[in-house]
Here is the input.
Amino acid sequence: MKRSFADLHLKIAPKETLTLQRAIQRAAKFGYRYLSVPFSFEPSTTELENLKTACKDAGIEPVLRADLYPRNENDLMNSLRRLRRKFDIICVFCDSKDISRQAAKDRRVDLLNFPNLDYRKRFFDRSEAELASNSNAALEIDVKPLLALEGPARTRFLSCLRREVAIAKAFGVPLIISSGVSEERFIRMPRDMASLSYLFGLGNVEALDAVSFNPLAIVLRNREKLGSSFVAPGVSIVKEGSDS
Amino acid sequence: MKRVKRRYLALQLEMDGVPTEKELMDAVWGSVDRLYGEVGASLTSMALISFDVSCNVAVIRTSLETLASVRSSLACIISVAGKEASVHVLAVSGTIKALFEKF
Here is the structure.
């Protein structure tokens, strides 16, 4: 079966229409089927229209994603309450241990992302993985630092990733590999992006799943939940009767 | 002695201008060297087979055992001859004939 590839983290501001269009066209040329541009707040109608038009022209399906940078646990809960039903994907950037633990146990959170350069703030340990595994949250890994960094900084980053990937595999936490790029020139073909994960210990099939099957599973699951016919997992409205 | 299995990779180079064959291979070797070190790079047995300057498509050869390392190193290339560049793998094959049929 042919794989559909997704990049859930193209870090381009939706306001930058021209850059966004060029990046989307490039991603389409490289074979991506689903693409996500993150919003930090509720998107304006113009931004949404721009994104949808650019994606439609390129033959790509847009995925609405909210990136949350909560200050504390209450802030996280408030943001989730406000935004969950408006976006296909919710990603939480965990800046402290409390936030990362709260995000990992909340079923409304889809992706957990950690600061790329501050290694002391990468809180994905065994406890975090256990919580994430129970709540179906996935660990998102941005490959941009692998392209941009060099020398000891990249070595250290790879070391962190290898440890986190081993923990995620042990606890069955899905892995998502995203580009995390804000410049067009860093966009890579899906299979090239998967090949980068060889650097931190993912096998060939696992790596391809991380750019195709895993992100798509989350998007489709959430779209089903956000649909009007959804009642509960496994239960949906097929037909409505009339009062007579 | 066991025969060494090889793989051929077709690469699309994206950059402004056209580099020489040496500049391209320097970038590839440099990337493998930075990621895997000199010993790791020496194990790849890489060689440039051809470089079509009209469409910036190159064909390189590597050993099957180090294919994954070479692919990841190619994805990490961000500059060739001091200019911004990216390298994409178009196809991988066991023979040059099959490689050209693939893309």
Q: What stands out?
A: The mean pLDDT of chain B is 94.
